């Protein structure tokens, strides 16, 4: 008897809509100008968001649990969409200047978003891996698309190191399959507790290999070395995408795997805390030494990886909620900061920190917006970055990782200095001629900046607007599926 | 009414951005005066009781505010000095819109700090008061401000982040349902964990106080700020460390406070004496005042750490009125700088031409070095009296500071205002217009509360008694 596979289109709809956008960009690119495609894609992303919201609380699954549209997936998916929308808005203005204004750019972007959503919606390791690979491959292309030596170098670096990361990850998946005999998160979680000692060893090995693989993707030290070169060398709109959307997706994958499937597996947490500590120290001190603003933001993204990873050290309930809140805030503030860079930079190298001197007197709105982003990245109230940091500290502290919270507090001091310096330089009076690109201020970019700044301000004063959704522990208790 | 008092200045600050340039001074003045008026209204009504609603219910963060006793006194002084700062800034600073907005924004942060009865809310206001201070330094500072900025930012944030970890620890280890002070005090952490948490909390407060060895940011901060002294005035109001230890430290960490008492009192006494000694060597008025303020804060810390009722009352009294006369002194230094173009203490002969400026400055210095009849005396004397009952020797060492204070204050005053006028010195104008008010009003306040301390003591005493009663219960 022929078995009809368990295909439910409803659960896949948000991903399919984005995929449709990607295919449309590929096909229609011959006939339509790129701006039209970007606008179509923006509409697609919004539609995808709407379809996600209709799936709220339904807990729909497809492919026998291989794809699950549970609330966790929807919250992470919405965060991904926010970052993607901001990327598209910025690329509307800057793609032409960055010499990446052709339909392939949009197509690749949309394929990458499809991959990221697949990770967030994944219910087993294979779906997660497929999503991860789609995302990574599109990411390699995006980083290389600009015809410049720097972009090629960064793309090649990204590709080589990313491929190593993927290989390690796949090897880890094989180990986990070997230990538990399953690739499904829920099955792995169920079997992880009752294994024979020999199998436990294999499981631990698999978990650690997967941890290393993910560490490449999210840029946890010591696997972070590609980040500054890639984020710094890629066109700014691509850096924006890689440092927000891709990272959110990779963390969504980590949350699924380590918070769900391997939540009870031994070993990985103690390694993760060492990686987190190293990331906090290296990311923050390295950012302190940067002279280029875009590179500094790249290192700051590494430092934030440390904070985000602290959430994973919490219990799935507390940590998931913290991560869910932090990821959105991180996306908003990083994307808005890079959007300002994209608007003001003279070339894709970004700008030197010293070039920001006196920005307040030349572009007051951008200066205020950028300083709000920097204050939020630094974790100063009343901006949302503060609550993000607070939740990360709390998640780690309550699960017994006191020393790492103290370490995070101490390394944050370095963070505050490197965020403070550009923020304050902007307000210092300056009489030298402007060093910004003269026609950078365009409506879509401004819209993205306003979205980010309003977001971090409102979420900072009334965190419950978003935290009220993510805080329900039941969402994160069943990360592996029920 | 209390919420108006907290947020009215911020509202004014935002309104200033859209006010036409022509009306900015008036609008700022109106908001500052209205805030002070509201404060007096609250005082006449006998203080504002605890108001508490959930802010982030899922995290147990509440919006709890109250203004009574110590907090009301400090809030009133803040509102008063903000008005003075606005009066002076409108005249002194060219194109003062941004400065006025920052002063008002800072006022909200400061009053919020004093009103907050929830640890997270306290933290939020604590950091919020920092942002305008940083911006004032960035926009109006002098050539080496970046160094001062980084130092200031690094020190304060180093402390406050450790405090944040402590705050999380207090709730999570004590098992309190919310961060409201009432709940936390009912579920205190005990044992060695309390000491560790207290140290984390203390890190933030010691930086703000500031307490040796965490004071290094202070002189640079003042030296690099705008000449007028307005940011300094707001900066002295910024010393919320003593208040934080009093309000949260003693109640939440009673055992640790008693355990660490001798060490902390020793540090405080050393800070007072050491700062007075360094002040003596300064030739820049701003640095001199910075170290003088540091020395006063050592006294405040001595009083608070001694946990003795008289001393704590004295500390809160000093904390409140030190702001008045030290703030006014910073403004007086600004006026001096405006006239002679330098902050050096060895100018000489200013008194010949600017008698009123010299006279008022001297009177303010008398208040500062605790001459009887001024508010400073009431505070310092009570602190010494109370602390002596706890740690006589440490108090003796701290008491030497009063002599040192007289030395540094009077010698600097002498070299600037008396002595010979240098040849070719420019003609120095005397006080005119609002400057009389700017220096006169604070002096009147310092004098009034030096002679008639009852209104302030009546406010402070019951609050201190309540806090210290919590200590005895354990």
UniProtKB/TrEMBL annotation, chain A:
Keywords, comma-separated and alphabetical: Cell membrane, Membrane, NAD, Quinone, Translocase, Transmembrane, Transmembrane helix, Transport
**GO MF assignments:** NADH dehydrogenase (quinone) (non-electrogenic) activity; NADH dehydrogenase (ubiquinone) activity; quinone binding
- TM stretches of this protein: 12-32, 39-56, 72-92, 104-121, 127-146, 158-180, 200-220, 240-262, 268-289, 296-317, 323-344, 365-388, 400-420, 447-469
Q: According to Swiss-Prot or TrEMBL, what is its membrane topology? A: Multi-pass membrane protein
Q: Which reaction does it catalyse?
A: a quinone + NADH + 5 H(+)(in) = a quinol + NAD(+) + 4 H(+)(out)
Q: Is Transport a UniProt keyword of this protein?
A: yes
Residues covered by the NADH:quinone oxidoreductase/Mrp antiporter transmembrane domain = 122-412
Under InterPro entries, the record lists: NADH-Q_OxRdtase_suN/2, ND/Mrp_TM
Q: Which GO terms describe its biological process?
A: ATP synthesis coupled electron transport
Q: What class of enzyme is it?
A: translocase
Its subcellular locations are: Cell membrane; Endomembrane system; Membrane
* Major location (coarse): membrane
Sections of the chain in a coiled coil: none
Q: How does it assemble?
A: NDH-1 is composed of 15 different subunits. Subunits NuoA, H, J, K, L, M, N constitute the membrane sector of the complex.
Q: Which family does it belong to?
A: Belongs to the complex I subunit 2 family.
What does the record give as the function of this protein? Answer: NDH-1 shuttles electrons from NADH, via FMN and iron-sulfur (Fe-S) centers, to quinones in the respiratory chain. The immediate electron acceptor for the enzyme in this species is believed to be a menaquinone. Couples the redox reaction to proton translocation (for every two electrons transferred, four hydrogen ions are translocated across the cytoplasmic membrane), and thus conserves the redox energy in a proton gradient.
Recorded hits in NCBIfam families, A to Z, give: NDH_I_N
Q: What's the name of the protein? A: NADH-quinone oxidoreductase subunit N
Automatic annotation (TrEMBL), chain B:
What topology does the record note for this protein and the membrane? Multi-pass membrane protein
A Gene Ontology cellular component where this protein is annotated is: endomembrane system
Mind telling me which residue stretches traverse the membrane in this protein? 69-90, 97-114, 120-140, 152-175, 262-281, 288-307, 313-336, 357-378, 390-413, 434-452
- Point out the coiled-coil segments of this chain: none
Q: Where is the NADH:quinone oxidoreductase/Mrp antiporter transmembrane domain?
A: 116-402
The family database entries (InterPro entries) matched by this protein are listed as: NADH_Q_OxRdtase_chainM/4 (IPR010227), NADH_UbQ_OxRdtase (IPR003918), ND/Mrp_TM (IPR001750)
Where found in the cell? Endomembrane system; Membrane
What protein family does this chain belong to?
A: Belongs to the complex I subunit 4 family.
Name listed for the protein in its UniProt record: NADH dehydrogenase
């Amino acid at each position: 008897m022929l078995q009809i596979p368990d295909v439910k289109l409803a659960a896949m709809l948000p991903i399919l809509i984005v995929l449709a956008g990607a295919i449309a960009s590929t096909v229609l690119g011959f006939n339509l100008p790129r701006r039209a495609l970007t606008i179509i894609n923006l509409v697609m992303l919004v539609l995808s968001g709407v379809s996600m919201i209709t799936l709220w609380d339904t807990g729909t699954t497809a492919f026998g649990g291989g794809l699950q549209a549970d609330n966790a997936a929807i919250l992470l998916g919405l965060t991904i969409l926010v970052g993607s929308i901001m990327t598209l808005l910025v690329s509307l203005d800057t793609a032409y200047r960055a010499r990446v204004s052709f339909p392939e750019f949009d197509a690749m972007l949309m394929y990458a978003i499809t991959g990221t959503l697949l990770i967030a919606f994944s219910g087993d390791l294979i779906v997660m891996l497929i999503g991860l690979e789609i995302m990574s491959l599109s990411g390699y292309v995006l980083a290389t698309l600009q015809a410049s030596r720097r972009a090629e170098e960064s793309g090649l670096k990204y590709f080589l190191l990313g491929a190593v990361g993927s290989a390690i990850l796949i090897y880890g998946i094989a180990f986990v399959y070997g230990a538990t005999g399953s690739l499904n998160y829920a099955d792995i979680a169920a079997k992880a507790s009752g294994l024979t000692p020999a199998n436990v060893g294999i499981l631990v090995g698999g978990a650690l290999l997967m941890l290393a693989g993910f560490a490449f993707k999210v840029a946890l030290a010591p696997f972070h070395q590609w980040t500054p070169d890639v984020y710094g060398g890629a066109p700014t709109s691509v850096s924006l995408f890689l440092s927000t959307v891709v990272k959110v997706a990779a963390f969504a994958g980590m949350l699924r795997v380590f918070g769900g499937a391997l939540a009870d597996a031994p070993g990985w947490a103690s390694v993760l805390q060492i990686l987190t500590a190293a990331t906090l120290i290296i990311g923050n001190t390295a950012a302190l030494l940067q002279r280029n603003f875009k590179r500094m933001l790249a290192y700051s993204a590494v430092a934030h990886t440390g904070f985000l990873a602290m959430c994973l050290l919490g219990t799935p309930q507390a940590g998931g909620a913290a991560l869910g809140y932090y990821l959105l805030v991180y996306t908003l503030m990083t994307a808005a900061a890079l959007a300002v860079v994209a608007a003001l930079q003279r070339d894709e190298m970004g700008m030197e920190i010293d070039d920001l001197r006196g920005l307040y007197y030349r572009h007051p709105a951008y200066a205020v917006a950028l300083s709000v982003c920097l204050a939020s990245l630094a974790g100063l109230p009343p901006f949302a970055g503060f609550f993000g940091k607070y939740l990360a500290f709390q998640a780690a502290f309550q699960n017994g990782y006191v020393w790492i919270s103290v370490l995070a507090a101490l390394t944050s001091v370095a963070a505050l200095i490197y965020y403070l310096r550009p923020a304050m330089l902007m307000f210092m009076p300056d009489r030298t001629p402007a060093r910004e690109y003269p026609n950078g201020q365009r409506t879509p970019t401004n819209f993205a900046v306003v979205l980010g700044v309003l977001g971090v301000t409102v979420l900072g004063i009334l965190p419950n607007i978003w935290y009220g959704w993510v805080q329900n522990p039941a969402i994160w208790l069943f990360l592996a599926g029920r | 009414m209390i919420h108006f008092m907290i947020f009215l200045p911020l509202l004014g600050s935002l309104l200033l951005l859209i006010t036409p340039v022509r009306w900015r001074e008036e609008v700022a003045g109106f908001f500052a005066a209205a805030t002070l008026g509201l404060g007096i209204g609250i005082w006449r009504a006998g203080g504002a009781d605890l108001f508490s609603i959930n802010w982030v219910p899922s995290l147990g963060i509440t919006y709890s505010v109250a203004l009574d006793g110590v907090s009301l006194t400090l809030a009133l002084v803040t509102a008063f000095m903000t008005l003075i700062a606005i009066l002076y800034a409108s005249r002194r600073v060219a194109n003062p819109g941004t400065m006025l907005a920052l002063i008002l924004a800072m006022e909200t942060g400061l009053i919020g700090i004093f009103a907050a009865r929830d640890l997270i809310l306290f933290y939020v206001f604590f950091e919020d008061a920092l942002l305008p201070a940083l911006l004032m330094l960035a926009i109006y500072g002098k050539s080496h401000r970046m160094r001062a900025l980084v130092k200031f930012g690094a020190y304060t944030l180093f402390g406050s982040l450790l405090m944040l970890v402590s705050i999380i620890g207090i709730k999570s280890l004590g098992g309190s349902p919310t961060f409201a002070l009432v709940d936390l005090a009912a579920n205190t952490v005990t044992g060695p964990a309390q000491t560790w948490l207290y140290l984390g909390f203390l890190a933030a407060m010691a930086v703000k106080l500031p307490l040796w060895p965490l004071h290094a940011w202070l002189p640079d901060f003042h030296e690099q700020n705008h000449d007028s002294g307005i940011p300094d005035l707001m900066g002295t109001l910024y010393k919320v460390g003593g208040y934080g230890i009093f309000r949260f430290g003693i109640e939440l960490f009673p055992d640790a406070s008693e355990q660490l008492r001798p060490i902390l009192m020793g540090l405080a006494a050393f800070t007072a004496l050491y700062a007075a000694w360094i002040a003596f060597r300064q030739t820049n008025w701003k640095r001199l005042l910075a170290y003088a303020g540091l020395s006063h804060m050592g006294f405040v810390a001595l009083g608070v750490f001694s946990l003795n009722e008289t001393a704590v009352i004295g500390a809160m009294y000093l904390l409140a009125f030190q702001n008045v006369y030290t703030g006014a002194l910073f403004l007086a230094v600004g006026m001096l700088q405006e006239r002679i173009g330098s902050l050096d203490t060895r100018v000489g002969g200013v008194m010949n031409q600017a008698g009123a400026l010299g006279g008022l400055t001297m009177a303010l210095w008398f208040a500062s070095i605790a001459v009887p009849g001024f508010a400073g005396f009431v505070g310092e004397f009570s602190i010494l009296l109370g602390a002596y009952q706890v740690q006589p020797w440490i108090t003796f060492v701290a008491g030497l500071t009063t002599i040192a204070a007289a030395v540094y204050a009077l010698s600097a005053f002498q070299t600037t205002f008396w002595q010979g006028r240098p040849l070719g010195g420019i003609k120095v104008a005397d006080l005119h217009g609002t400057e009389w008010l700017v220096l006169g009003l604070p002096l009147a306040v310092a004098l009034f509360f030096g002679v008639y301390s009852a209104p302030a003591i009546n406010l402070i005493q019951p609050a201190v008694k309540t806090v210290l009663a919590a200590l005895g219960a354990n």
